[in-house]
Amino acid sequence: MLNGFAMVASVVAMLGGMSPDAYIYPETGIVTQVDCSANTVTFVTCEQVPHYFTGCEDWDVGDICSAIMYSPDQYNVFDDKVLSAVYSGRIEWLPTPDAYIYDYPAELLTAGE
Prior knowledge:
Layout: H1 4-14, E1 23-35, E2 40-45, E3 50-54, E4 63-71, E5 81-90, H2 106-109
Antiparallel strand pairs: 1-2, 1-4, 2-3, 4-5
């Protein structure tokens, strides 16, 4: 398996280089659909932009997906391609809005002082 930089470099080479308006950026979203018959996973970003990639074997609705994206231009996010996607947890594991720092044990807050 290629490391991140080698994978991005090989994809850019495959795409024939990058135009001046193209760029690569990180993105994170929540998996909203897993279609194993089409081998497609859909995740939606906080801006409600859907992105798709193939390889549904280990994905489930509610998974957090972190991706490296390729944008052929900086103006239209709907034509961006997923270069790499990795599992980053479940939405149930995120802290709730009412989980304040004061809820943590004092010894954890003062560690390293």
